[in-house]
Amino acid sequence: MKVIRDEDKKSNKYIMRFEVEKGNIQKNTRKNASAVEITTEDYNNLVVYMADGSKPRYANIEENKVRLLELRYQQFLKNKEKLKSLKDYKTIFNVVYGGIAGIIVGVTAMATSSITIILQCSAITFALAYTSALVVNKVINSKINDINKYALFFENEDIFKDVDLDDSNILERVKSKDKAIIAEIKQEKDKENEKIYFDNNSIDGLSLDALRKIKANIERENYLGLVRTDKETKGNIESKGKSYVKK
Questions:
Q1: Taking burial as the number of CB atoms within 10 A of a residue's CB, which of 71, 78, 141, 142 is the most buried?
Q2: Is 16 helix (H, G, I), strand (E, B) or coil?
Q3: What single string gives the DSSP state of each residue in 172-189?
Q4: Could you give the CA distance from residue 156 to residue 200 in angstroms, rounded to a whole number?
C-alpha cells in the first residue's frame, strides 16, 4: 500500500506490506571450555514493512494477520479521503504547465531579435517543464491508481475472495507482469494452506488494470455458467457424452 498522506511518509505505524518469513538459525551451545554444540532453531515470523523503513517481526498466527489486514483497511479509508485533492492538484498542475508551455511558444513566435538564443532558451525551458510535468503526473497517477485499486478490491471483496486461480479464464488479458505476481501469490498462499488468495495485503504488487480485468473475467464466468475445459472436467464430460453447459 503506497504512502499517500504526507504525515505517513516516515511513519513507523504505516504498514506498506507484510510477509511470512520462515527458515532456521544456527545456535551454538557451549558444553564446556573445549566443546561447542551446534544446533539450529526454526523460525516462522510475520515481517511487517513500515513506511519509515523498519521491519518488526511478529508471530505468524491468524490473529496477527487479521489485525494487520484490519489496520491496512483503516489506512485505506484515510488515503481515500485524499483522492479528490490529488485529482484537483493534478488538474491545476496540468493547467499551469499548459499555460507555461503556451507562454514559451508565444514568446518564441513573437521574438524578433537574437532569435537563435531565444529559441535555444525556450527549448531548454520547455524540455525542463515537460520533464517535470511527466514526473509529477506519474507520481500523482501512481497514488490515484493505488487508492482506486484498493477501493475496487474492498467494494468487491466477496468476488475476489472466491477467485479460482487454477482457471486460466480468470487471468485472460491480464498482463504477464501481473500474472507472474499472481503466481507468486498462489505459491505463497498454498505454502501456508490458505484458501483465500487475494486479500488487501497480497494484492499489493498487482496493478489496478489487473484487478479490473480479473473482476470482469469472474463476472463473465458467472454470467455464462459454462463448465471449464480443464483436463479433468473435460475428460469426465466427454466420457459421459454431456454438453459443456451447466444445467
A1: 71
A2: strand
A3: TT--HHHHHHHHHHHHHH
A4: 12
